[in-house]
């Protein structure tokens, strides 16, 4: 273990002082394990153990703009500059899922879980995913032939992370929130099922001012940070933008002059997640698994089409030369006519003789026969091992959703539409019928190809005057059928390939009449499904799924509302580099039972550095606001719950970064302001007990056109280094400050590409455990 000189009375123990390969711009501790994820300036993700052993390094190939851990620490979410949110396995960094939720850079991520496990005893609705009772484990995506593990994005059979990502039966209900530079916030259950999207530009706060209704709205807003409360009932959003005042009179809207340009906080009502977490859990579990299985079917169709096309390409490459030979000999017959003439016992024509003996030959025929036979076997294996099991499980899961959709009082409120789910369930059943038909057509085609090749092999043997007694027998009628329907046609590929021009399969009128009669007996309402190809049926099924799952997305999005808005401080420049932290602590003053409503169980804390240019008479200060989450409801009851305090940083220092830590504590990282360069000088890290600070009540009024925190300029609290738990750092520090609340450790990054890990706990036992 590397340490500095022993300093007496230091509250924090230095564990490591290690070099880093590149400057770090994002760092987050795993919430459950001693793992630190870091993002370098060149957008590589490094995962280190507490002892600084590196486990893996990955590079997404795009600029990384945000990062956060899944609450159980088994996956990590990464926000990218192009609007993509990707999930990676903690074990090896492998990409598990990628979603293009945004159109611009994802600047912040927050992943929060419900405090109670689904299925706990009490008033919580228990739910079991019954699929495993009736089906084996879900099939995986088939691998393209000729590729080895790691060549593509497909998962190995031994890799269980992807399945675990979708298996949410034993997960606590959790929500991944992502915010972007254009003011949009996306919500996804378990990080994989999109359940809502809002844009803060659409929100407004209306008040009654001088008998006129005044509406305040944000313009050109960009999300800075989002934090979902631990009970999932509220989302606090900090954003930069211009707060403008609108007056609505006689349906005319007027914007009064310039608004307040700076940082603002909003409280969004997300109680739909808490109130309907059981229903959302079930829908998300079924829907996310259905989407995974849909990808299995898509990949299966692609691989099958590729394999069969390769075999048919070899067949036509060999047999198309017969047409050229016929033309060269001045004949006007077709290859089929030449083969039929040979089958009927007529004299072999010169072009056919040359083709069979010289161009094709016994070796060439066996090669083509093997290619077609192997392709047929591979297609059958893919259907049996991947496509058909996936389609069957999809049908079962859609049946489960269909049953839930009929419980209207519980599931209509989250947008599970019975009509759309019924249609999607029917489409899943139609695909199963298509799979059965495909297997019959494939089996018939492979059999007829084999019969045709057996006959040709015997013909070649006879033409070469070789014995043919040991050859397999053939059926002349099947040869004729092959020449009429398969020689220059491909019904197998027609079923697999999705073309721009729809191919309608001819069905006998008697069969169609029987299908229509079955509708009266509970059959499929769409009686035209047999005229469609399997690829077209899959396309329609996928479209019906998207339509059915879009309804919960839209419904939940509409139920997320803005409760309150608070101007924080003016900031003409971009506030993205302003140190900021949001956390929720239990309200120990409230005696709340386990199953009481989600209201007032937690207190929100918002800590931030106030930029020096914000206020002329407030310099080098840190602001902390608490109680904002429930202040709008408190005001209606005649009092305010919003409190705040301004902390003056000790002279000679400025705040580099900060982090709310554990229960009502805050870790500050301060640099000396007297250093001549960024890399010289020293820094200090100190822990402040937030609950001991003299918070001042912030009165709220209907007028939002001024900065509330400026009212605290006369009640600033001055921090004294000697009065706080502080530790001197022999380097000039830079952001980010990574603090682990679960392990009581902090990682400080120095300007000289070094990482210093400190144990924050004074208790020796805790320090030993962390080590």
Structure described in brief:
This protein is of the alpha+beta class and 771 residues long. Helices cover 32% and strands 29% of the residues.
Overall description:
There is one protein chain. Strands 14, 15, 16, 17, 18 and 19 form a 6-stranded antiparallel sheet that branches. Strands 20, 21, 22, 23, 27 and 28 form a 6-stranded mixed sheet that branches. The longest helix has 56 residues, at 350-405. The chain has 15 helices and 32 strands. It is 32% helix and 29% strand. It starts with 12 loop residues before the first strand and ends with a helix. It is an alpha+beta fold and 771 residues long. Residues 1-9, 117-125, 147-161, 250-257, 591-599 and 763-771 have low confidence and may be disordered.
Key phrases:
disordered C terminus, Apc4-like_WD40_dom, six-stranded antiparallel sheet, APC4, 771 residues, 15 helices, elongated, alpha+beta, six-stranded mixed sheet, single chain, disordered N terminus
Percentage of residues in DSSP E strands: 25-35%
The radius of gyration is 34 Å
Mean pLDDT over all positions:
85
**SS content category:** alpha+beta
Distance between the termini: 10 Å
Count of DSSP H/I helices: 15
Percent in helix: 25-40%
Cα shape = elongated
Unreliable spans are 1-9, 117-125, 147-161, 250-257, 591-599, 763-771
For the largest beta-sheet, the strand count, sense and barrel status come to:
6 strands, antiparallel
* DSSP strand tally: 32
Keywords: Cell cycle, Cell division, Mitosis, Ubl conjugation pathway
Pfam families: ANAPC4, ANAPC4_WD40
GO cellular component, one term: anaphase-promoting complex
Protein name: Anaphase-promoting complex subunit 4
